[in-house]
Amino acid sequence: MKIICIGRNYTDHITELNNERPSEPVVFIKPDSAVLPKEQDFYIPEFTDDVHYEVEVLVKIKKVGKHIKQSFAPSYYDEIGLGIDFTARDLQAKLKEKGLPWEKSKGFDGAAVIGEWVSKTDYDTVNNLSFELKKNNEVVQTGNTSLMLWKIDELIAYVSTFFMLKKGDVLFTGTPAGVGKVVANDYLTGSLEQKELFNLRIK
Ligand code: ZN
Fold first, then answer.
1. Using CA atoms, how far apart are residues 114 and 134, in angstroms rounded to an integer?
2. Which has more pLDDT, 137 or 12?
3. Residue 139 in domain
4. Number of structural domains in the chain
């Protein structure tokens, strides 16, 4: 499987990182080795002093498709989830400055937290889902999929013009404002529509 991630999909987060508002979605890939194994702690890698959490709504792709029309996109997923796009912000800043690819700062081992999956039929629409991340029991990020610049079905259509989607692929749909640093012993929990879908300890 592959992990396809969207950057800069919420206006408030674009502003907080002083990024330009993109005219097309920003897309990058994490390798399957980036998935943090279930029930494992997240270990801050040695090459960074500034790992940030980014909570994101996830979509699990259920069948092969390319050049998917937006109107057909809903038939490519049944499950919605929540996860973290861990980012070595110090390393990413250096790479961005030099115009180099981000992979090392976002694709390292454990950098993709994937929580439990929920059937999309549990919700009236995937375009109005609230979610939040708590750090040590305090809310640090809140978002709603209604605030995405590009909604889930638009993203599936867009990314499938570049990458063939396959069963089991996971789409990370971007993070709202409030990203921040983790340190050892932090405890993170993520909820979608009030339902906790992951929790993990930082080491
Ligand atoms: Zn992200």
1. 16
2. 137
3. no
4. 1
The CATH number linked to 42 is 3.90.850.10
Structural domain boundaries, residue 155: 3-128+147-183
149 has pLDDT over 90: yes
Is 121 among the domain residues? Answer: yes
4 CA from centroid of ligand 1 (Å): 10
- Ligand 1 centre to CA of 147 (Å) is 15
Ligand 1 centroid vs 122 CA: distance in angstroms? Answer: 25
